[in-house]
Specification:
- This protein is mainly α.
- It is 79% helix and 0% strand.
- It has helices at 3-8, 12-22, 29-41, 43-69, 75-85.
- Helix 2 crosses helix 3 (29-41) and helix 3 crosses helix 4.
- The radius of gyration is 22 Å and the shape is elongated.
- The structure holds zinc ion.
Length: 86
């Protein structure tokens, strides 16, 4: 088995963990190579990576929409909460 094949020989579970770690930009060089090699040859992980990307984009979109809505409580709502907490 050559060097490149050894690099790609991680399980799908390991690839998923590296993918999650990678979304926080926390992969070192070797981990990035292992993940890329695995995803190149594994259609299951290709699908997983694509689905994860869609989910991340949807979450980001929701968070951006919430920031725009400027959610805040009215004075009456604040007073009611304070009353309940007494
Ligand atoms: Zn895989």
């Amino acid at each position: 088995m050559n060097f490149l094949m050894k690099m790609a020989m991680i399980s799908c579970k390991q690839a998923a963990l590296l993918g999650s770690k990678g979304s926080f930009n926390a992969l070192n060089f070797i981990e990035r190579i292992k993940l890329k090699m695995h995803v190149k040859i594994c259609t299951t992980c290709q699908d997983y990576a694509e689905d994860s990307k869609l989910i991340d984009e949807a979450i980001e979109k929701i968070l951006q929409q919430r920031e725009k809505q400027q959610l805040s409580l009215t004075d009456e709502q604040k007073a009611r909460i304070l009353e309940v907490l007494k």
